[in-house]
Amino acid sequence: MESVNEKDFSFGKPKPIDLSHHLSDISKARKPSPLKDLQRFLGNPNLIQMAGGLPSPAYFPFASLSAEGLVAESFPISPSQSPPSGSAFSWFWKLFGAPTKEKTTTLTVGKYPEQPDDLNLAVSLQYGMAKGLPQLQKFIDEFTTRVYKPAYKDPVCLVHTGNTDGWFKVVMTFCNPGEGVLAAEWTYPSAMNTTRPLGVTPVPVPIDEQGICGVGLRKILAEWDESARGMPRPRIMYTVPIGQNPTGATMEATRKKEIYEICVEFDVVIVEDDPYYFLQEGQYTHKSSRSISRTESDEEYIDNLVPSFLKFDYQGRVIRLDSFSKTVAPGCRLGWFTCNPLFAERLERQAESSTQAPCGLGQTMVTSLILNWQFNGYIRWLRALGTQYTQRRDFLLDCFSDEFHLEVEQEHKGAWKGNTVYRAYAVPRNARAMIEKTSARAPMFSFVPPTSGMFVWMQLHLNHHPAFPDETPVTLEMKLWEKVALAGVLFAPGRMFSCEDDGEASPVGSGHFRVSFSNVPVSKLYLAYVMESDH
Amino acid sequence: MESVNEKDFSFGKPKPIDLSHHLSDISKARKPSPLKDLQRFLGNPNLIQMAGGLPSPAYFPFASLSAEGLVAESFPISPSQSPPSGSAFSWFWKLFGAPTKEKTTTLTVGKYPEQPDDLNLAVSLQYGMAKGLPQLQKFIDEFTTRVYKPAYKDPVCLVHTGNTDGWFKVVMTFCNPGEGVLAAEWTYPSAMNTTRPLGVTPVPVPIDEQGICGVGLRKILAEWDESARGMPRPRIMYTVPIGQNPTGATMEATRKKEIYEICVEFDVVIVEDDPYYFLQEGQYTHKSSRSISRTESDEEYIDNLVPSFLKFDYQGRVIRLDSFSKTVAPGCRLGWFTCNPLFAERLERQAESSTQAPCGLGQTMVTSLILNWQFNGYIRWLRALGTQYTQRRDFLLDCFSDEFHLEVEQEHKGAWKGNTVYRAYAVPRNARAMIEKTSARAPMFSFVPPTSGMFVWMQLHLNHHPAFPDETPVTLEMKLWEKVALAGVLFAPGRMFSCEDDGEASPVGSGHFRVSFSNVPVSKLYLAYVMESDH
């Protein structure tokens, strides 16, 4: 009788179903790299290896690589430092409460290992398998299992060179020219720029404050008319379910289950592009009533995160894209797929004849850092990062709240349905250039306070602008955007996020700005704001 | 009247011609990444940037990156150290004459720059343009101009993530499904594995001891029968002209000019995949008559290198792929295209919606190293690297010469035409398992001593094997390969390098091994050899 290993997270889970019919013609035609066959002899330690075109590591001009890595505890989990009492700069100081002198630990990786399993440059700067470094593989396997808790047996993690390339590889591996991919009606433009030239057309799906909407998705799939649409019913859905780009929407568990079941019914593969997963910020509450302590344990923190689609994926039809871009740094160009073994094998074949393994220097230093932090340290880092973004989100929305009269809409009739839409009205002291000819009681813009990610999606009520309808919303959006930019604040104009090529998806009379609170030095924002308020 | 800048390497050179008709349908459909348009406002230093989804560099968990970089003079230019006189281990010691303790210099890159143009992690770990770091761009521009001396005005260098991905991007940017690419009949299999699944068929071109043969190329193009071939005349030629993979062939200047003119005549774009460029080793001479001093200046060294196709490219129809894989380390996953501006722009668009910029950690440390070495130091490093590979090549061929009776063929009738083909015959004391039943006066194998690269291409005369013709050459090649592998020496079996999918390109009765001398620890090889000789 077999004993049940307590740590066997796959125990009792279903096996993934056969989804091989989703592979593209290109992917089906791919063979393993012939040179990789040689690997089977490489186990012999005395082997004289004269097969591969590998340089000798003696010629790698790095004797070692090092980094001063920040300690996992660099930022506070709770925004609990008291601001200088009563100071006008209280928010400034709170947000700038990060240590002025960074506490670091020295990470060093030498050319040759001292212990057999040590990271070492002789291996990590050499040609390697497209799967990347085994130490990194081990970490992401454990991380994925413990954090995302996939619902099926033995999912596979495979490193990639960032989610943009990950998505490109998915399109090449699953889509044929002349087909479509389902995507939110407002979506990440680079992702659609990847698909269109390949002859794969984005099919917009209506969204609400949680992103892709089940009713809208089902309607599209159930009513699909191949001849009217000029393409078969889409088999692939692209989604950024947490901190959606550009709307900032977060898809909660119930919605995910609903969407997943629709995808089972219509045999759709879900591509979960989830770079903002750990920037979960919770509900926005005004600073006057904000509670700031976070006392949960790491396990509670993980359990309280909005789950990944993987958690509901009992069939293996989710391809999850994780990225170190927002948790470590974008320049790592490092992330990973989690998917069923058949899909992973095909994605690996594609990597072998294009990017191969991600950069060895990047892999080495990221792996060195997270091995130093260990699982608990990395979770600690991610929690604090979430807190940092929460403070940034709160600061921006507090500014909105100070500058405008905000009203919560219970039943919004526009693009956003739901109960957390805020409408912003001008208040007299703020009647500046952009709004001064606008009726004081007409809302200027609406937004849903994001509960994750980096973005606030402002829906501009351009039909209340005095130039409307002489100027179209598209023209007005661009004029306003340029005016704001020339005044020194750069937003992203909304129409570039339209899933459809012509950028005309806005509801009648509206436009949008995507406002990112992730990068601007808060001090700069605060000072600009204070100076404006002093006018 | 304009003054002529002595440093203007473009002065008097022709402009590239319009070759836009070579772009693939996919490439023509590509648009610039919409978010990149925002860049035009980023010049304003006081701009409050709320457009891009960029994390704050405060959250990058690396305060600095460092490396112990080898000094540029780490290896000797000339193999001039005297071996322990008369020692049986003389070659061993000469090849192991590299410094036992590596001399290094510390390279450190901090998060924020001290001077505006300093390398810094706040930039290099952030999202960036697909062109990569400006400091690296500047270096490769200068390097390309001074070393390869392109024949047309204003070629563009663009970083990529290694030549395998570079070639993938070229295929996507220039080839449509149903078309063909010209390639040497024996060629780098991963390159062909990239094209085939995309519906792009390799068209084998006959080769000789210099690689692709002008007569054979012209014949294919001039006699192209679209209906018989089932595809239009190929517009793209893939070539590894220096240290060709797998044959080790080097294409000299005269041949390159001939090939280039044929490509002009038939409007073919030349893709020059040239990772082994600096592993130029010169003619092999037996150790008894070898002269080992290299006294040329750096300028003479550069002038004496076999030129790149770029030097003859007065129309801008060459896409050159350079790689740091063999000059720094494969794990860098870093290299660059050199091509005309129109092609470069399209390749950059493709990078934007797939890999984006190469890994920032890799770019930073490679750039830091070569900025430390400077141009002259890098040339110094490359010269010494060439010497190292020359010694390795010589050692392997000396072993052949000691073990077999070698004869130089003046007029070889087989696959190799030319005057540098060696035939290897068994001599009685070496009549071991593989050859003992073979006629003592029938050649066992032939090879052209490579003048560059990492490979010796052994043509096995299997028709002299006692099991022939009962066993086919294909079966015999694999059996011999496996026997050698089980005995502890791993070669690469020849048929995997066949340009054609079925691997049946060998001349009647022959097989091949690709023998790499790049990676094996020379001490191991030497000791194995000495022990064998003592039998």
TrEMBL record, chains A, B:
Give every Aminotransferase class I/classII large domain span.
126-402
Concerning its family, UniProt says:
Belongs to the class-I pyridoxal-phosphate-dependent aminotransferase family.
What would be one Pfam family of this protein? Aminotran_1_2
**InterPro entries listed in its UniProt record:** Aminotransferase_I/II_large, Class-I_PLP-dep_aminotransf, PyrdxlP-dep_Trfase, PyrdxlP-dep_Trfase_major
Q: Which residues cross the membrane?
A: none
Q: Where is the composition biased (Basic and acidic residues)?
A: 1-28
Q: What are the required cofactors?
A: pyridoxal 5'-phosphate
Which intervals of the chain are annotated as region Disordered? 1-31
UniProt keyword list? Aminotransferase, Pyridoxal phosphate, Transferase
Protein name, as recorded: Aminotransferase class I/classII large domain-containing protein
